[in-house]
Amino acid sequence: MEGTRGSGAGAATASYGRAVVYREKLPRRWTIATVAVLAAWVAYQGSVLLPDDSTVWYVMLGFSAFFAFVLNAVPISKRVYHRIRVQDGQLTVGRETIAVESLTADSIREAREQPADAEFAAALASRSREELTRLRRASRAAEPPRIVGGGWSVPLGMDQIVVETVRGESLLIATHDREGLLDALTRARRI
């Protein structure tokens, strides 16, 4: 979390919710590691194959670029659809922007008590078949929340929170830093 912006005389006149600045950093280790390994492999193959077998090397280069894209499709998707910023009273997730004031204070408080994905899976594992059947029926009757920012589901390695708008729409936000995001939303919403 980068902290708050606005200090001094001008900050007293600014709305507190607009002074909150939060940017979620996405992990880059996987992308750096895969690109470094593939670059080293292409360089090694270049030292073996070039200049005699340049056509084979170009084919290997093309396959390596495709393989790098396949290995990094999820991190690329996270950057496009699930990059989170709270700034100037606006929550931006991917390409979608929502006013923080349009989120209900109660839903932000409730999101703090929602179990993390691992806790939820452990709670489901401890249920009986009858309880799971009853929960399945109840979940089919309820409308699922809309994923903010786009995408089909919550990407691997990300946690999720569900908040509501003042219009009653449920929104699912995929995040890497659940506590940091909830803290920024709480401060921006002035709860």
What topology does this entry show?
Elements: H1 9-13, H2 16-19, E1 22-23, H3 29-49, H4 54-71, H5 73-81, E2 84-87, E3 90-93, E4 96-99, H6 105-113, H7 117-125, H8 129-141, E5 146-147, E6 159-164, E7 170-175, H9 178-189
Parallel strand pairs: 5-7
Antiparallel strand pairs: 1-2, 2-3, 3-4, 6-7
Helix pairs in contact: 3-4, 6-9
Transmembrane segments: 30-50, 56-75
Keywords: Membrane, Transmembrane, Transmembrane helix
Tell me what you see in this structure.
The chain has helices at residues 9-13, 16-19, 29-49, 54-71, 73-81, 105-113, 117-125, 129-141, 178-189; strands at 22-23, 84-87, 90-93, 96-99, 146-147, 159-164, 170-175. It has 191 residues and is α+β, with helices and mostly antiparallel strands. The protein has two domains: 9-26 and 82-189, no CATH class; 29-76. The chain has a four-stranded antiparallel β-sheet, with helices on one face. A three-stranded mixed β-sheet has the order 5-7-6.
How do the strands line up in the largest sheet? 1-2-3-4
**Any low-confidence stretches, pLDDT <50, length ≥5?**
1-14
For the report, how would you describe the main beta sheet? 4 strands, antiparallel
| Class by alpha and beta content | alpha+beta
Distance between the termini: 19 Å
| Number of DSSP helical runs | 9
Write a concise keyword list for the protein shown above.
191 residues; alpha+beta; 2 domains; 4-stranded antiparallel β-sheet; 3-stranded mixed β-sheet; 9 helices; 52% helix; 15% strand; disordered N terminus; transmembrane; transmembrane helix; membrane
